Amino acid sequence: MTQSRSLSKWKARHAVLVWIGILLNFAFVLPLIFCPEWILGLFGITVNQLIWPRFAGLLLGILSIFYIPATLDIDRYRVFAWLAVFPSRTLGTVFFFLAVFVFGQPIGYLAGVFLDGSIGIATLFCLLRILNLEQNISEGRQA
Question: What is the value of pTM for the model shown?
């Protein structure tokens, strides 16, 4: 397989993974906005004021929309692809990890660790492969 063909496949893999992450995010966005008690109850989380989970859901939806440009043209919107990993997915993972293990929040918040962590690691791996392949192509090396 040629390096440019492999590069195209890794860019496609990255786009698919980011779209999976966007869809997973929206699996939380809509319930958080429209029925926060139900979705939070699934994870054993109780809240007193529903405005904050609704607002968090809205912000998650807005953030997820900013992931889209890099899936359409990763060469043009490369910085969005990196920002989706650092700080977005990375800080989401760290935030919920610390919330559970340092600040004693309900274990249901680990869903954020698994969602952001798994998508973040997978897309980071794709970005590193893309970067490596682009460097090999520019230097004329064969894999």
Answer: 0.91
